[in-house]
Amino acid sequence: MPDTDVLVVGGGPVGLAAAVEARRRGHEVVVLEPRTGTVDKACGEGLMPGALRLLHAWDVDPAGHPIAGISYRSPAGHVDHRFRDAIGRGVRRTVLHDALRERAATLGAVTVTGRADDVRVTPAGVEVAGISARHLLACDGLHSPVRRLVGLEAPARRGAGRADGRRYGLRRHHRLAPWTDLVEVHWSPVAEVYVTPVAPDLVGVALLGPRGASLDDALAALPELAQRLAGAPAGPVRGAGPLRQRSTRRTAGPVRLVGDASGYVDALTGEGLRVGFAQAVAAVATLDDPAAYERAWWAATRDYRVLTSALVAWAASPLRPTIVPLARRSPGLFAAVVERLAA
Ligand SMILES: Cc1cc2nc3c(=O)[nH]c(=O)nc-3n(C[C@H](O)[C@H](O)[C@H](O)COP(=O)(O)OP(=O)(O)OC[C@H]3O[C@@H](n4cnc5c(N)ncnc54)[C@H](O)[C@@H]3O)c2cc1C
What we know:
Oligomer: single chain
Structural class: alpha/beta
Number of strands: 18
Helix content: 25-40%
Bound molecules: flavin-adenine dinucleotide
Order of helices and strands: EHEEHEEEEHEEEEHEEEEHHEEEHHHH
CATH topology of the largest domain: FAD/NAD(P)-binding domain
Shape: globular
Radius of gyration: 20 Å
Number of helices: 10
Largest sheet: 8 strands, mixed
CATH superfamily of the largest domain: FAD/NAD(P)-binding domain
GO molecular function, one term: monooxygenase activity
Keywords: Monooxygenase, Oxidoreductase
Protein name: FAD-dependent monooxygenase
Strand content: 25-35%
């Protein structure tokens, strides 16, 4: 008899969401996570309405700041879209992690401190770090060791961007009252800086751009934003990347890739959590049917992959300066894209 039905490797937000969903469907669950306590990570911390809706369905309601829409901004002007009939939320990663961890524990998911260094497929399922399970949900993030160990890693393709062609993310917080309920995406000549209100006295600032891009250099090209943020940095800068990661397939025997582990395009559209949560739901619903998970994965990630890839390619092209002016001239199109990604 395996030790558990479902072994979730990685106790980040997607792994914990998968654990919650699996417990709600009556499966025994063990979460394997090397880090103890509350886990922080470089993230823009914007929960799109679709992500918040799923959290609420799981009875998870992390504190944060409402997000009513998205604003694209350049020194030449801005365009805003307010979500039509839903609201998102800016939530500190630490707050989100604690809320999901508590919910998973309340529902009876067991957490084991440890790391997946090896994956052994057995007649009964899989064995990792001495734990046997019928199913393994690999939720171990952007650089997923499980993806590599089970042979699902796709060779890196040059992503769109400058310098070495890859894009990276940074984030830091500023201790001040949010001045807006929109996520502001500020387009500098080389990087995007987006600002998310996450608490009544805290805003998160994330940068997306080529290797070596710095927040201070980007802010120097965005004087209005730099002035708002001046003097209030709070806490360390955290980084992540390269952002673009690919998998050849999402299933290998009893193993499923879920969340960033299954591949990632870019954080430019603020989509990782919504798409990762949707994958967690799909993975749990299709534990015994790999082909169904593969289909559900394509469906759950399609809009994100297509729209984010297109926007990142545009951002890396000589036409980059046309993005905000074109969005301003076509507010209907901008609204349609935002609504599609927020759903
Ligand atoms: C700069 C930046 C800004 C972003 N902004 C947003 C945003 O505004 N909104 C949004 O929705 N998304 C955003 N994202 C994306 C979002 O952060 C990710 O999609 C999300 O964190 C994915 O969650 P995850 O649980 O799949 O992976 P992670 O959060 O990376 O969690 C993976 C977990 O696996 C564990 N792990 C790693 N290796 C092993 C191992 N060998 N064994 C066991 N456990 C292991 C790690 O310790 C970690 O806890 C942003 C990303 C970046 C980089």
